C-alpha cells in the first residue's frame, strides 16, 4: 500500500471515529478541543450547546480559513461546564496552556504599558507592563511605550516626585530643576505626596483641562510679576498638555471609566479596536490586527477574555458590540452561502449604523436581537448578550451591549475605526506589492535584463571556519518565496574559505537544477564582491555550461548593503540609496543573511550538545531530547543525582554512566 492510500485510509478511520463521537455530544455548555493527526490541540472553542456547535464544523460549507482548520481535524474532546461564564474562563485557560495555532492568541509581548504611582514612603511615577496587586495606582493602558513615556515625561516636569530607584546620599540635578522634593536630604510630609498623587490621578483620569486652567492662572501671575522665565516654563507645559491630550470627539455626561470595544473582519483577518474612556472622555485608543479561523464573534470574545485575564486594572464599565454590529461585521465580509469574503468601506458601515439607529424602532430592534440570539442558540454559539453576561459575572464589573443612544455610537465608532484599520492594512499590502514588482522590473533594466522574475541569492556563514553552512533564498517578482529556500552544510571546504564555499554551493545547487529540470533564475546574487562573483561564474560556465547573470552585493564597514557589482569582470553599478531598487537589494541581502545565520546557530547548537551527550553509549537522539527537556541544560544534568533520572525511566546503571561521562569531560 502506497503512502497516499495509507494516509487516506487513516483519514477515513479518523472521520468515522468523529462521527461516532458527534452522536454522543451533550446539549450543555462547555469547551471543545480540536486535534490534528499527531494529537496536537490546534483549536479551542466554547459553546452554549456543545452538540450543535461541534457538529457545525462537520456539516455545511465554510469560508476558506475555517475550511483550513476543519481539514486538519482528526479528533476532538470536550469538557462540560456549568455555565457560559465557566466556559469562558476555561477556554481562556486552555488557550494559554496549549497555544493552539488556529486560535486568536494575545501574545505576552503585546502586553500594554501602564503608568504607575508606586505605593512607597516616597512614591515614584514609572512606566510598567506588569499590573500587580501591590496597592499602587495604575493608569492606562497606553497604546504603546512611546505614548506612556511621553506622558510620564510631561508629568515629571509638572510634579516633583522622586526619580531615583535607590535613594542617593545627596540631592541630584532633578532637585535643582524643581522636579524632585529631595526626600534624600529633607523631610517631606505625607500630605505633600497626597496632594501630588491626587493631582496626577486627576490628570490621568481625564481631568487635564482643570490642570491646564490652573497652569494658565499661574502663568498669568508669573507674567504680571515679571517672572518671564517661569511664565515660559508654564506655557511650555500647557503646550505639551495640548499636544499629548487630543480634543475628544466623544464626551459623556457622566464621569465613568469605560473600555469600549469594536471589531471588523475582512479577508480572514480581524481588527479589534479599544477606546479607553476615562472620566467620561476618550483618552487613548488601541488596535490589534490578527488572522482568525473560527466564528468571528466567538473569536472576538476569546480575545476579550484573554485581554482581561492578565489585567487587574479594570474599568467601571465595558461596552461590547451587540448582535446588530456583529451581524454587520459578518455581512461586511460578504459571507453568504459560499462563505467567501467581500469588502465594504468604512463610510458604508457608518451609514448602515446610522440608518439602523435612526430608522429602526425599539420593537424592531428587539425582534432583530431576539432573532440573532435564536440563530446563535441553533448553532450552539454563545450569543452577544450571553457572552456579555458571562464576562460580567467573571470580572465583577458592568458589561453592557448597547442597542441605541450615545453608548451605541461609541461602539459604532470603535467598529468604524477597526474597519478603517483593516482597509488600511490591505491597501498598504497592495501598495507594497505593486512597488516591489516595479522595483524588480526596474532593477532588471539597470542590469540589462529583459525580465527579472526569479532571483536566487546565496550567503555563507561560519565562525573561524567552524560549522560552515550556506543558505539560498528565492525572490519571485520582488517578493520572498519561502517554500523555495534551501540550506546547505558545507562538505568539502576546510577553514574559512569564502570562495571555495561559494563554488561548492553553486555547484550543488545548479547540478540539482539541471538533474531535476528545475527553473533557472533570471539572476543569481552572491554576498560579496569580485572574488565571489568570479567563483560563481567559473562553476556555472566552465563546469555546468550555464550562462546565468551573477551579481554581488558588497557591504560597508557597518555591514550594510553598499554597492551592487555586475559583469565579468565585475564592475560597480550606480543605484541611488533612496531608490526602491536599492531597497529591494537590501531586503534580499538581509533576508539571505538572516536565513544563513539562523541555520548556522542551529548547527552550532546541535554540535555543542552532540559532543557531550551523543558520545555516551545508550543515548540516542530521542533520549537526548528527553534529557534536555526534563533538566533544561547539560549543566543541570551534570548537577543531578542518580534518583533524578528515575522519572525518565533511566535506570541506576545508565544514569551513573551519563553522570560519569559528563563529569569526566569537564575535568
Automatic annotation (TrEMBL):
Domain UvrC family homology region profile span(s) in chain numbering: 260-540
Keywords: Coiled coil, Cytoplasm, DNA damage, DNA excision, DNA repair, Excision nuclease, SOS response
InterPro entries recorded: GIY-YIG_endonuc, GIY-YIG_endonuc_sf, GIY-YIG_UvrC_Cho, RuvA_2-like, UVR_dom, UVR_dom_sf, UvrABC_protein_C, UvrC
Biased composition (Low complexity): 332-344
Coiled coil (residue ranges): 205-232
Family stated for the protein in its record: Belongs to the UvrC family.
Subunit text: Interacts with UvrB in an incision complex.
Descriptive protein name: UvrABC system protein C
Species the sequence originates in: Paenibacillus lautus
Gene for this chain: uvrC
